[in-house]
Amino acid sequence: MKESIQRLNSYIPEEPLEKVKQKYNLTHLVRLSANENPFGTSPTVKDAVVKWSFEESNRYPDSYASELRDLIMKKTGVPKEQLVFGSGLDEILELLSRTFLEKDDEILVAGPTFSEYALHAKIEGAKVVNIPVLADTGHYDLDKFLDNITAKTKLIWLCNPNNPTGVYESKKNIRDFIEQVPKTALVLIDEAYIDYVTDESIPTNFELLSQFENVAVLRTFSKVYGLANYRVGYIAMAPKLAEYLQTIRLPYNLNSLAQTAAISAFKDQKFVQYSVQKNAEEREKWEEFLQVNGIKFFHSQANFIYFKYFDADKLADKLLQNGFQVRRGLQKNWLRVTIGKNSDNVAIQKIIASDLNR
Ligand SMILES: *Cc1c(COP(=O)(O)O)cnc(C)c1O
């Protein structure tokens, strides 16, 4: 057993909905703890999956995900050889640490941020340097990031918008930051929630790829595309780096059904737009609600909202008893709630309001 693994706690995955229902004796349960798309999945995906030819079951899938790759290249302008697909973005996160980190290397992450960046670094025996977000706004402390770069810093993780804070860093701030990062460190911009950003008209940082060889952009089909079950994510990076990842990834990491679903979902940008618009409307109402009630929160540009509550665990229990599962345990007294459908948001806010008045 690798020494680095003995001390680790694994990522705690979501329990199946039915199991949670049984455990708490619930008839109705809405999961708002995993940032899944509350509007489901594009109906075109259902057609595509049902029509998928079962006769291909005995054949290995297309290892290169050619059709999906083509589509993404056309939409993003990123050349094909710069794209690497993974079984969910999770696999890409793992591959990055496996490829670039050796024992005693360092990575920089925000505190709090997506926990898997640190998990995979620790498996490789690397050191995780945690830079707290700014207490009042939740923004990245990018100056502190720069101060903490050493010759051993190999990976710098920017989750944008950040999970769990929901806070978005502008393209200008990210560019200014990257211009000061030495070429020995790779900056990874995780854009899992980028489609939900409305504060900037073209929020993605894809354009940095052609100017900086030490920048990569990561995307997933699990969130706004509503395909969490199919496990499709990808990274766009310099051709030479992409080749390293291609070399060590499993050859058939994306099965044909997953590819079929992703192709279909990607073509239905109307569903994406609908989800983004609904989310933005509900997000605004959430922020208004929290503001009015004097609850501390960070300005969100994602499909979830992160707020501080004096009795967070009790509130989470109360919400669960009422059929709403939210994310706790990220920071003491903070909860992360996926922005749901209007009726669910209204119901949750009612429960919070009555809890405040108890
Ligand atoms: C959900 C999430 C992922 C992982 O997505 P999958 O494609 O489902 O593996 C990666 N990064 C962030 C920030 C996420 O929130």
Automatic annotation (TrEMBL):
Enzyme class (EC, first level): transferase
The keyword Lipid metabolism is annotated on this UniProt entry: no
Positions of post-translational N6-(pyridoxal phosphate)lysine modification: K223
Cofactor names: pyridoxal 5'-phosphate
One GO MF term attached to the UniProt entry: pyridoxal phosphate binding
EC numbers for this chain: 2.6.1.9
Domain Aminotransferase class I/classII large span(s) in chain numbering: 28-345
Keyword Secreted annotated: no
Pfam families, A to Z: Aminotran_1_2 (PF00155)
Keyword line: Amino-acid biosynthesis, Aminotransferase, Histidine biosynthesis, Pyridoxal phosphate, Transferase
GO biological process annotation, one example: L-histidine biosynthetic process
Catalysed reactions, as listed in the record: L-histidinol phosphate + 2-oxoglutarate = 3-(imidazol-4-yl)-2-oxopropyl phosphate + L-glutamate
Pathway membership: Amino-acid biosynthesis; L-histidine biosynthesis; L-histidine from 5-phospho-alpha-D-ribose 1-diphosphate: step 7/9
Family the UniProt entry places it in: Belongs to the class-II pyridoxal-phosphate-dependent aminotransferase family. Histidinol-phosphate aminotransferase subfamily.
Subunit (UniProt): Homodimer.
NCBIfam families cross-referenced by the UniProt entry: hisC (TIGR01141)
Name of the protein in its database record: Histidinol-phosphate aminotransferase
Organism: Ligilactobacillus ubinensis
Upper taxonomic lineage: Bacteria, Bacillati, Bacillota, Bacilli, Lactobacillales
